[in-house]
Amino acid sequence: LPPITEVSGHNWLLIVYIPDDAKVRERMLYASTVATLKREFGLTYITQEIRASSVVNINKKKK
Questions:
Q1: Which architecture, in CATH terms, is 12-62?
Q2: How many whole angstroms separate alpha carbon 39 and alpha carbon 23?
Q3: Rounded distance, CA 49 to CA 60, Å?
Q4: Using H for helix, E for strand and C for coil, what is the string for the chain?
């Protein structure tokens, strides 16, 4: 993660997991929930975001 920002003093990582087998409606619900979450917390707090559709994707991105 990058150093803590001077503006917000926070450095949060948001991991968004939407399963490969999720239906279109579920994917839309996930996406709108993520947007609400980011808006409510404030965009200055979340400095990085990882999107994955399987656990394998998350493991690859950690390295």
A1: 3-Layer(aba) Sandwich (3.40)
A2: 24
A3: 14
A4: CCCCCCCCCCCEEEEEECCCCCCHHHHHHHHHHHHHHHHHHCCCCEEEEEEECCHHHHHHHHC
Structure tokens at 14: 């948001």
Please answer whether residues 16 and 34 qualify as being in contact, where contact means their C-beta atoms are separated by less than 8 angstroms.
yes
Tokens representing residue 2 in the block? 């990058």
Domains of the chain, residue spans: 12-62
d(CA 53, CA 19): 5
3-62 tens-digit pLDDT: 555 555 678 889 899 988 999 999 999 999 999 998 888 878 888 888 888 877 677 665
